[in-house]
Amino acid sequence: QVQLVESGGGLVQPGGSLRLSCAASGSIFSRNAMGWYRQAPGKQRELVARIGGGISTNYADFVRGRFTISRDNAKNTVYLQMNSLSPEDTAVYYCNTAPVLIHNWGQGTQVTVSS
Predict the structure, then answer these.
(1) pLDDT at 15 over 80
(2) CA distance 110 to 61
């Protein structure tokens, strides 16, 4: 069974940065595009960024230019570098394949942007 373990969240001031990590067990990681998703209170989960098996990336408009997704296939890990954070980025961040293939989501990592 594939497991997803997100980490790296925390409390940061507006304008600050965080780097999230997601470790995925199993072989599904290397065969699929991976994505970072987020869910803010009272809102639906949304795709933030996606990275293909190579270096192709896609970003939601609301993070383009501020967030960078990357992956290390040798470590089965995907990263999300988040810069210029704003309170609107406050959410629980999750990783999964993109599109979603793993039904058991990880616990996510909380990102709170507040002064």
Answers:
(1) yes
(2) 21
